[in-house]
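Lab meeting notes turned into a lecture example. A postdoc, R.K., suggested we walk through two folding results consecutively so the class can see how the record format repeats. The first protein's sequence and structure tokens come next.
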Amino acid sequence: MISFQIKSLGSFMHKLLSSDCFDSFLLAEATLTTAVSFRIDGHQNKEFYTTEEWEDSSIRPYDFVTWKTMRPLFYDLVKGKRTPVNFKFVLHLMPEYVAPTLAKGDTTVTAGDIRALALNIKYDGSALTIVTGTAMNTFLMDKSPDQIWDNAMRRFLTKKEIDFEEI
């Protein structure tokens, strides 16, 4: 787990809400406070779908909704002259990207061992931070996935030209 402080809020928010920069992630949860507060659970609701749709992986390939589909909603909620009071987004890397991410490091841990490679994006009214996290399906002594994920996020932020400082 590592924390990054984002140096340019405006530039980061543009990349988060107006570009495909984070479209390889799923939205696990979100809270956003503007004039009112919003709380979103990113789990897809079984009751919304027919049985056939729920079981069709081409219609509902993930347990969580994609960031790409939710991004316009959040853009609409925060656009305007006033900055949100605060927000927190918990994003999970899409499962198909976990194995390639692990392959960039030295580990015996497999994608099947990992429940989520996560980002916690938090704005407290003055500073925006991103904290990495790794959730396993079972307890493992091997912490190499944490280091691999931290390094992957350093590369990701650099490649996407997101100015950050480790804190």
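The second example is placed directly after the first for contrast:
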Amino acid sequence: MLADPDAFCRIFETDRLPTLPRDPEAEDDPKDVLEKALGGLGARMGRGVEEYYAVLGAEVRLDALRRLPAFQQFEKELRAAIAVIAAPSHT
């Protein structure tokens, strides 16, 4: 979620970009960074924080995620696994 500032703008219907880290994968406490970004846009933290996560997670674009090395590795491994499953059996 920290990789796509536009997702925040879409769910809060604002042009004001949240303050997000340049390298989300380097963050020691990404949940804290996420909550601060949400709070900076007016989200009320507390019991309903999971709702924000769900809505924001659904808004994150794949092209934003594809800039992250961990997501690139995930896609590579997923493609390989699908290729194995889809390959005709050689037994």
